[in-house]
């Protein structure tokens, strides 16, 4: 990966799940734990649960409600918040993410988290991994009513925090979100090579990929 032009970067925008935190927690919860508990709570087989859940997940992907715990609790008639606590021991920081956060703070960069995670998910994770002190703001897309995939999110973010896209770095593990940021004019973009520690590297298409946070510290 090429060295970042830190002298041209004032603001660092960071995703949470898969970027700062290991995506294994979320993948395990949504693909394994929730379907199993859904089956148990509704008295059906796991296979039937998968048949019912798969089209719902696919049909709502990329929309704000996909990330909304209230929506899924109503839709599935199960207590999603409580179920997320059952696997909270899997919430984990990606290696050296805190080292990176400390370094960019020391360098005087403006550091802001922007996540599609519901506020309840954000709170749960911040209770277990103390990252909040590193950030000027922790922003959930639910605050604006648009997911990061939407151009309207970036307009709302600009109106809220007044950042210069041309002098900003954004790191995220989701390609449609990175493309949305690029369309808005964010100049420095990085994908994440391996968001889930339990799965192999992913194809990051046209984006340079972050493998190790220590790689980013050169020239800071």
From TrEMBL:
First-level EC class: hydrolase
Keyword Hydrolase among UniProt keywords: yes
Keywords from the named record: Hydrolase, Metal-binding
GO CC, alphabetical: cytosol
Enzyme Commission designation: 3.1.3.5
A biological-process GO annotation: DNA repair
Single GO molecular function: phosphoglycolate phosphatase activity
Listed name of the protein: GMP/IMP nucleotidase
Designated gene of the protein: yrfG
């Amino acid at each position: 990966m090429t060295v970042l032009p830190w002298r041209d970067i004032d603001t660092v925008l960071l995703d949470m799940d898969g970027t700062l935190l290991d995506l294994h927690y979320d993948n395990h919860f949504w693909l394994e734990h929730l379907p199993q508990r859904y089956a148990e709570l509704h008295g059906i087989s796991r296979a039937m649960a998968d048949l019912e859940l798969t089209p719902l997940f696919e049909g709502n992907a990329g929309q704000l409600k996909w990330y909304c715990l209230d929506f899924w609790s109503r839709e599935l008639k199960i207590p999603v918040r409580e179920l997320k606590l059952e696997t909270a021991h899997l919430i984990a920081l990606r290696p050296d993410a805190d080292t990176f956060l400390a370094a960019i703070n020391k360098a005087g960069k403006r550091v802001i988290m922007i996540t599609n995670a519901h506020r309840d998910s954000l709170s749960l994770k911040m209770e277990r991994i103390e990252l909040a002190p590193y950030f000027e703001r922790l922003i959930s897309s639910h605050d604006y009513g648009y997911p990061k995939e939407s151009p309207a999110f970036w307009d709302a973010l600009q109106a809220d925090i007044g950042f210069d896209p041309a002098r900003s770095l954004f790191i995220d593990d989701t390609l449609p979100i990175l493309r949305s940021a690029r369309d808005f004019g964010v100049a420095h973009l990085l994908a994440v090579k391996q968001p889930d520690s339990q799965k192999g590297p992913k194809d990051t298409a046209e984006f340079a990929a972050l493998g190790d946070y220590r790689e980013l510290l050169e020239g800071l």
